[in-house]
Write a structure and sequence with these properties.
heterodimer; A: mainly alpha; MetI-like fold; 2 domains; globular; B: about 325 residues; alpha+beta; OB fold (Dihydrolipoamide Acetyltransferase, E2P); six-stranded mixed β-sheet; five-stranded antiparallel β-sheet; 9 helices
């Protein structure tokens, strides 16, 4: 019986790992393999062209604006959803999921319809204030939109699980709302928040559909890394496309590692 | 002194507190006793400021507190499920209120050491709540509440989540602690034995009303009504009247006013013996005896005995 149990357990494990390998590891591995097939110097040349450097910084800039905003919004949205009592709560709850329900390309078109030259606000913002479409603000808006739900959706269940007694205890001990949030709630939801930020970042740097509609794809100006990958792919520059993809993957890995480290340090100091 | 005046609190259609007034004397240990849904926890939370009453006033330590947030009431609150700050060590949990009050570091350290000693957790400073047993967690929560030197200490079913033997230990411990610290304490419980054992002042609630207030023995001996009588101790019904089972007299010889009955079952519970008897007219009665009394009567299943209900007994005042 024990032997059988062991065999079936090993078989299950093998199936799970093989499934992951075929679906995830092989494609990602091939990208890295193909990237470095022609040697490291070719890769370095390919990711240090002015267009690639500009795309890298733009991607980073967009993520650095969109992700913190989403994190702040997500935490407060989750608190409102779990702790709050207000009319329209169900509607608010459903609205947060809207970006998941709507195709990114539709989101891009919607932004175009609102902020574009022939859009809702007409030429007013363009003439007086800021260019949204075919410019960085549009890319940031599109990115915020598509990655909006992650933090709220990761934090809300954690908040529900920890309950509100710790917060009430903090209140009776004299802590203000902000002190309670900073010293009791935030550390308790830390894991959900970190996971939400990682997902949000991955989505932000990887977004293609919505961004491709609003960016205008001006090389060296409004071209993000994903757009660069697509352009190189369309131009039969496969090696260049692989190199840019590898760069995207590296940003994602650095984010993951960074958040893990940050959490480790927090844990050590508390 | 805590004064609650004409407080009403509704949750939707449910009336948790219906025009409740109560005074808790300074330095006393008062228990709010009642079945679930009686409003006892709501009353405690209204005193703490964790719920705001729909109408009525609350005064804590001579200060009008009805509209004060919990932060400003100077109350220590202990929750049934500890509400420990899980990501903080025992030391940081206890120090929390003092750090919020920005006390000097050495003063905080001295206070934390003193309190952990008081609750028997010296040497547990660097543990996390997850590494403590339930009883230890609750003692930590008590130390945390006492650290801010509250004017009143409020305990919401503090031992409700603990094993029976730990619960008994902590009750006795809480009594001693109260003798030592003397802070005005209000304890919510649904366990009459706990309320009787710990408190010096008992408040019995039902359906959002206060049924009776008094010393435990006074309420036990002179309950205001049948509900209170049944809630604070065991009862037997004889001829439509309620008696304490230990006030019923069993005898092996016929006596004046005694009814013939048959013992159906004898339960030996250590010092206490419980006899279920059926009178010849079919009425079923439970009587409680000491072991010595039962032995003297040679009480066993099927014996014939005579049952007499006493003229004077702890019967409800309005019955």
């Amino acid at each position: 019986m024990t032997g059988n149990g062991l065999a079936s357990r090993l078989a299950l494990r093998f199936i799970a790992l093989a499934y992951l390998a075929v679906l995830l590891l092989v494609p990602v591995g091939v990208v890295f393999y193909r990237t470095f097939e022609d040697g490291v110097s070719a890769v370095i040349d390919s990711v240090t062209t002015p267009a690639a450097i500009s795309a890298f910084w733009l991607t980073l800039e967009v993520a650095l604006i969109a992700v913190p905003l989403n994190a702040i919004f997500g935490v407060f949205a989750a608190i409102a959803l779990v702790r709050g009592r207000f009319p329209g709560k169900r509607l608010f709850d459903a609205l947060i999921d809207l970006p998941f329900a709507v195709s990114p390309i539709v989101i891009g078109l919607a932004l175009l319809l609102v902020y574009g030259r022939n859009g809702l606000f007409g030429e007013f913002p363009l003439d007086n204030w800021i260019q949204v479409i075919f410019s960085t603000p549009g890319i940031v808006l599109a990115t915020i939109f598509v990655s909006l739900p992650f933090v709220a959706r990761e934090v809300a269940p954690v908040l529900r699980e920890i309950g509100d007694e710790q917060e009430q205890a903090a209140a009776t001990l004299g802590a203000s709302g902000w002190q309670t949030f900073r010293r009791v709630t935030l550390p308790a939801i830390r894991w959900g928040l970190i996971y939400g930020v990682v997902l949000s970042t991955a989505r932000a740097i990887g977004e293609f559909g919505a961004v491709s509609v609003v960016s205008g794809k001006i090389s060296g100006e409004t071209e993000t890394l994903t757009l660069l990958v697509e352009k190189r792919f369309q131009n039969f520059d496969l090696a260049g496309a692989y190199a840019a993809s590898a760069l995207l993957a590296v940003i994602a890995l650095v984010t993951l590692a960074g958040m893990t480290l940050l959490n480790k340090r927090e844990e050590d100091t508390t | 002194m805590i004064k609650v005046h004409a407080v009403t609190k509704r949750f939707g259609d449910f009336v948790a507190l219906d025009n409740v007034s109560l005074e808790v004397p300074d330095g006393s240990l008062t228990a709010l006793l009642g079945p679930s849904g009686s409003g006892k926890s709501t009353l405690l939370r209204v005193i703490a400021g964790l719920e705001s009453p729909d109408s009525g006033d609350v005064e804590v330590g001579g200060q009008q507190a009805t509209h004060l947030p919990p932060q400003k009431r100077d109350v220590g609150f202990v929750f049934q499920h500890y509400a420990a700050f899980k990501h903080m060590t025992v030391r940081d949990n206890v120090a929390f209120g003092l750090q919020i009050r920005k006390r000097p570091k050495d003063q905080i350290k001295a206070k934390v050491d003193e309190l952990l000693e008081l609750v028997g957790l010296s040497g547990f400073h660097t543990r996390y709540p997850g590494q403590l047993s339930g009883g230890q967690r609750q003692r930590m929560a008590l130390a945390r509440a006492l650290a801010i030197e509250p004017r009143v200490l409020l305990l919401d079913e503090p031992f409700g989540a603990l094993d029976a033997n730990v619960r008994a230990d902590l009750r006795a411990w809480l009594r001693r602690l109260h003798d030592e610290v003397h802070v005005t304490t209000v304890l919510v419980t649904h366990d009459q034995e706990e309320a009787m054992e710990v408190s010096e002042n008992l408040v019995v609630l039902r359906d959002g009303h206060i049924e009776q207030v008094g010393a435990p023995c006074e309420i036990y001996d002179r309950p205001a009504n049948e509900f209170v009588m049944g809630f604070v101790g065991p009862v037997s019904r004889v001829d439509g009247r309620l008696f304490r089972p230990h006030d019923l007299v069993l005898s092996d010889v016929p006596a004046d006013g005694a009814d013939k009955a048959t013992v159906e079952r004898v339960l030996h519970l250590g010092f206490e013996v419980r006899a279920e008897v059926i009178r010849d007219d079919g009425e079923r009665v439970v009587a409680q005896l000491t072991k010595a009394e039962a032995d003297a009567l040679e009480l066993r299943d099927g014996s014939t005995i005579w049952l007499r209900s006493p003229a004077l007994s702890a019967t409800p005042l309005n019955a």
